[in-house]
Design goal:
With 384 residues, the chain is an alpha/beta fold. 29% of the residues lie in helices and 26% in strands. The protein is globular, with a radius of gyration of 21 Å. The structure holds S-adenosylmethionine.
């Protein structure tokens, strides 16, 4: 196996560096166990979900709120309850079609979307279950959802049999990915190593480095990819979808996230990949610093998600931009009566240069088939 480190080209070290945080120390231990290398998915899952020190494990973490709350990024339900109301119309249709009164929400953040949906859907929902890899947000969710405590519950393990409507807003982008890099015609997996030696110019927290192993892994398509090329693959997201589909006897899934179909994802121009970190509302592409303090994401390959779902027995019911989905679902109804701030927030959800076009909605059906309200105009399933 070819093993190549950027490390080789670093300036000559002159001092031993101790890990700056407990999380860094833990990741260094994993790297030692892996003979000097871990894949990026392992690094990302530890940085985000390590139970004690991971980004999402911090009890004080502000998920998705406005900058004034000390958050790192803002999500649609935190921006405006109009998101939950519009999605609610689509969910209402899905509840009728699946003949269920249950909602499952994955990665529910502060509980804002759950509150909006329960508020809007009333008696149509009898049971609302929240699922997250990190249990730390539970106290906050339970405070948000106090008035609905009779309907709301949490699970840390999925039951063998499930049914109902499933929602995941910005969950797929938070599932760890593997990074592949083609250098001079050879594919490497880009993982993480560390330098236990430092030159005086680099801070200790800069000590993680990229490291490469030759690999037989490939992106799903190499068509048109020329020259050196960096990208991601999403085996964990595919496994996640497949597991869910197999557990549901009857269900409709709504996944809302930023991403592309395969031929846009593996596009010659996207040769630097899509890994993006968020810290105090600033985005950057270096996950190796401020580990545990910033969010790490990758865009979603919606084709891979749709194929994994189909292979597990689901049907793709619709796929479109967030703008189309929300407008079809009634976002604009009554907006003329909203105040200026609420209108501006709602428009952010659908403006092409904000969340309207980059964000997509994928609707899957398990054991049911219908034409989703949100995809009735502008459906792009054919692009997957
Ligand atoms: C960016 S936050 C989204 C929060 C919220 N949905 C919102 O819109 O404000 C991503 C959330 O997904 C959760 N998550 C990631 N992978 C998950 C999985 N496999 N199952 C359940 N939750 C997951 C993370 O722990 C995190 O809370």
């Amino acid at each position: 196996m070819h093993f190549h480190k950027f490390l080789d080209s670093l300036p000559q070290p002159d001092a031993k560096v101790e890990p700056k945080t407990d999380l860094e120390g833990l990741i260094r231990g994993l790297i030692d166990e892996g003979a000097g290398w871990i894949d990026f998915a392992r690094f990302m899952s530890t940085a985000l979900y390590e139970p004690k020190w991971g980004y999402y494990s911090s009890q004080n973490r502000q998920i998705g709120g406005k900058p004034s709350l000390g958050s790192d990024f803002v999500t649609a339900p935190e921006l405006t309850p109009a998101f939950g109301r519009a999605l609610g119309n689509s969910v209402a249709q899905a509840l009728i079609q699946t003949q269920t009164d249950e909602i499952w929400e994955f990665g529910p953040g502060t509980g804002a979307l759950a509150f909006q949906l329960l508020d809007y859907l009333g008696d149509k929902v009898k049971k609302y279950t929240l699922v997250d890899v990190s249990g730390e947000l539970r106290a906050r969710q339970s405070a948000t959802l106090e008035v609905y405590k009779d309907k709301v519950s949490w699970v840390s393990e999925l039951p063998p049999h499930m049914q109902g409507v499933l929602i995941g807003n910005e969950v797929l982008d938070a599932i760890p990915v593997n990074i592949l890099k083609r250098i001079s015609g050879t594919w490497f997996e880009q993982g993480v190593s560390y330098s236990n030696l430092s030159d005086s110019a680099s801070a200790p927290s800069d000590s993680f480095t990229w490291a490469f192993k030759e690999t037989s892994l490939r992106p799903p398509t190499e068509d048109g990819l020329v020259g050196d090329y960096l990208t991601e693959i999403h085996p964990q997201a595919q496994a996640f979808i497949s597991t869910l589909v197999k557990k549901f006897s009857k269900g409709a899934f709504f996944f809302i996230d930023y991403g592309f179909p395969e031929r846009e994802y593996y596009h010659p121009q996207r040769h630097m990949g899509t890994i993006m970190c968020h810290f105090r509302h600033t985005a950057d592409d270096n996950p190796l610093v401020l580990v545990g303090h910033k969010d790490i994401t990758a865009h979603v390959n919606f084709t891979a998600v749709a194929l994994a779902a189909q292979e597990a027995g689901a049907e793709v019911l619709g796929y479109t931009s967030q703008a189309h989905f929300l407008i079809n679902s009634g976002l604009l109804e009554g907006l003329d009566r909203a105040d200026r701030e609420q209108r501006a927030a709602a428009l952010k959800l659908i403006n092409e240069h904000e969340m309207g076009e980059l964000f997509k909605v994928l609707v899957l059906g398990v054991g049911v088939s219908f034409d989703p309200l949100g995809c009735q105009r502008g459906d792009r399933t054919h692009t997957l």
